[in-house]
Amino acid sequence: MASKKIVLITGANKGIGFEIAKQLAAQHKEYHILMGSRDADRGAKAAEILQKDGLSVEALVLDVADEKSIESAAQTVESKFGSLDVLINNSGVALDSRTGEAPTRATFEQTFAVNVIGAALTTEAFIPLLEKSVGARLVFVSSDLGSLTLRADPHGRHSNVGATAYRCSKAAMNMLALQYANRFRPKGWKVNIHNPGYTATDLNAHSGPGTVEDAAKNAVRLATLGDDGETATYSEKEGSLPW
Ligand SMILES: NC(=O)c1ccc[n+]([C@@H]2O[C@H](COP(=O)([O-])OP(=O)(O)OC[C@H]3O[C@@H](n4cnc5c(N)ncnc54)[C@H](OP(=O)(O)O)[C@@H]3O)[C@@H](O)[C@H]2O)c1
C-alpha cells in the first residue's frame, strides 16, 4: 500500500463516481482508491462490491457540503496515507428541472453548496496533502451544460435544456478548476475538467442515453495523465469542448 498512489473520488458510492473508481482500480494497479461517500453505509457497500473483485479500494466518509466532514476526511487521509496524488471532484446534484426555467433560491443554494462550494472547499482541504505528491492530478467532473459557448448558440447542443441552477453551477465549476490550474501550473500539477455526457444515472432518473462505462473513460484518462499531459482543459471522451 505504501508504494501505491492514493486517489480520492468524491461521490463514488454510485453512478459515474463509482464507475471511475472501478475503472481506475482495474486498469491501474498502482493506485489505491478512496471512494468518498456522504453516507457511511452506502460507501461501505459500494467499496465491498469492488473489493470482492480484488480491487484496491476503500470507503471514506465525505459530505462535501459539510466543513466538519471535509476536515475529518482530510485528517483521516493524512493519518493513514500522509499524502494524496489524485483528487476527482465528482459529487454533484441536479435539483432543477431540465425543462423549467424558474429555479428558486433554495435550488440555487443547494446546487451551489455541493457542485461549486463543495468542490472548492474539498480541494482546499486536500491541497496540503496534494502538495506532498510528486505532480498532483485534479479532475473536476463538470458538464457540457456549463459551456457558455454552447449556450450562446440557439441551436447548440442541449439548447432545449433549462436546468438553470445546474448550468450556472457547472459554469462556475469550470472557472473554479481554471483557478486551480493556474495556481498550481508552476508546480506541474495537471488540473482538468471532464464532461461525462448525458448518462443514465440517478441524477436524471436514468433518462440519459449514455452508459457509466463511457462516462468514466475520459475522467480516468485525465486522472492518470503523464508529465507531458495537458492542464486547464475542458474535454469529453470525443475530445475538447468549447468554453
Ligand atoms: N449523469 C449525467 O448525465 C451527467 C452529465 C454531466 C455531468 N454529470 C456529473 O457527473 C457527476 C456524477 O453524477 P452522476 O450522474 O453519477 O449522479 P448520481 O448517480 O446521482 O451520483 C452523484 C453522487 O454525488 C454524491 N453527492 C451528492 N451530494 C453530495 C454531498 N453533499 N457530498 C458528497 N457526495 C454527494 C451522491 O451521493 P448520495 O448517493 O449520497 O446521494 C452520489 O454519490 C456529477 O457532478 C454530475 O453533475 C452527470
TrEMBL record:
Task: Name all Ketoreductase domain ranges.
Answer: 5-199
Arranged from A to Z, the UniProt key words for this protein are: NADP, Oxidoreductase
Q: Which domain of life is it from?
A: Eukaryota
Against Pfam families, the record matches this protein to:
adh_short
The signal peptide stretch is none
Q: What InterPro entries does the record point to?
A: CBR1-like (IPR045313), KR_dom (IPR057326), NAD(P)-bd_dom_sf (IPR036291), SDR_fam (IPR002347)
Which species? Mycena alexandri
| Molecular functions per Gene Ontology | oxidoreductase activity, acting on the CH-OH group of donors, NAD or NADP as acceptor
Q: Please identify the protein, giving its name as recorded.
A: Ketoreductase domain-containing protein
- Similarity comment: Belongs to the short-chain dehydrogenases/reductases (SDR) family.
